[in-house]
Amino acid sequence: MAGTLNEIVLNFSTPIDPVTGTNLATYSIPTSAVTGLSVLGASISTNGLQITLATTPQVHGQTNELTITNLTDRSHVPNTLNVTVQFVSTISYRDEVLAEPGLVRYFTFDETNGTAINSLVSKYDTSPLNIVGTIKGNPDLPVYVPGLVPNVPDDTALAFNGIGRTNRVALPNGADINSTLGPWYQITTLFSFEANGLPQIETNDDGVATNYQAPVIFSDYQYAIYLYPTETSNNPSQAQLVFEAQNTSSSGPGSPWGGNTAATATYIAYPILTNQVYNVVTVLDGNAGFVNGELRLYINGARVGTVVGAGAIYQNPNDPPGFGQGYLTGYTGYSKTINPELVSATTLFDEPLNGVIDEFAYINQGTLTDARIAQLYSFSQTNWAATGFSIVTNNPSSTPPSISFTGVSAGAFNLSWPSSTNGYYLEYTTNLASGIWISNPVPPATVNGFNVVTQAVGGPGSMFFRLSQ
Fold first, then answer.
1. Based on the number of CB atoms within 10 Å of its own CB, is 442 exposed (0-12), middle (13-18) or buried (19 or more)?
2. 0.85 exceeded by the pTM?
3. CATH T-level assignment (fold) for domain 7-90+386-393
């Protein structure tokens, strides 16, 4: 992977020996003289099925070769891998986001069916009851559509059609989002969004505004992202994407701040159009001692708004988060909800979202710099390169090796073949007709340029040997 990760990830079907798997001598880059790529380190996963090679900076779309020499697995008689493979480096937006240290949720919306919405990651919450979202309302809505992020191939996104008032995704309270931990001084969300329809200002016969539609993208009340109308047309051409945060109660250091009126609300609004994809990043960068932190809004990698006056957000388990749902107080003072469980006589039941959400990440430790946000946006728009491995050779010799036999001496015989013919190992069978071949349990020794197996003479019956790759 190119970008900031610069890794080669190798996946195996059997656990790899940690000694040979993490030995830098096992790996080399034959194309290094041309591309400048080299291996800096090797680490192995706990289960031994994955090895990650750290490399010098990779170039997106560049072809390299990797040679693996004498890599063994954990079998009683280890199998040895000697192979050269070709691969193409690519930038991976999703892996870049997953590498952010403060990431606590990442909803990719790849499920394509069912009502469960899963997160790729959780930090403090481990129970599915705390991390799996649920599609509510008509089970056929929302629907999955092609993804919005060019770098994520064969991706899907979640589309809300703006019709069913109960169609939404309910997320459970999470210890690391809103329920028991905290306070949170830094919160960042990253996602892609496309509006298929926009909210309107509803008026009476006299032209007086009676309702401001405010469909929710994501909200847990104290941290809300929603749409807000600017036109009275039945088919608005423009509206605002609003990022608003607050902690109006005196909960501890860094509070209270924000408010529920146009004069006191802490928010940033940005004009958007229909049928246009926006990469959105919202940042709370608060502090404890003084309520002089910032809210920042980024659209397509660029900062488009900053407002000062933010502090900390404390626990708010009475307002569970969700997509296309959530209680909020708009910056003009209108209280809204798209969650039927929260509707009251004084809280308006708001309009449903008509749009698409994709690749939603939630970070609650640290903040991303302007440069990192611009970089991630660039990565997200970079088309995925053709990746995977193709075998260049696992036997440099142009002809397959032959087995040499040395006669019986002291109750044993020798089988040998040139050690320069990499990738071959010895198998045996006691019944040629069966077609069943077994890896020979005697490991070879290297003697004068040959792999030599000293095989004890067994009892009655026959044994047949062959070399296999």
1. middle
2. no
3. Immunoglobulin-like (2.60.40)
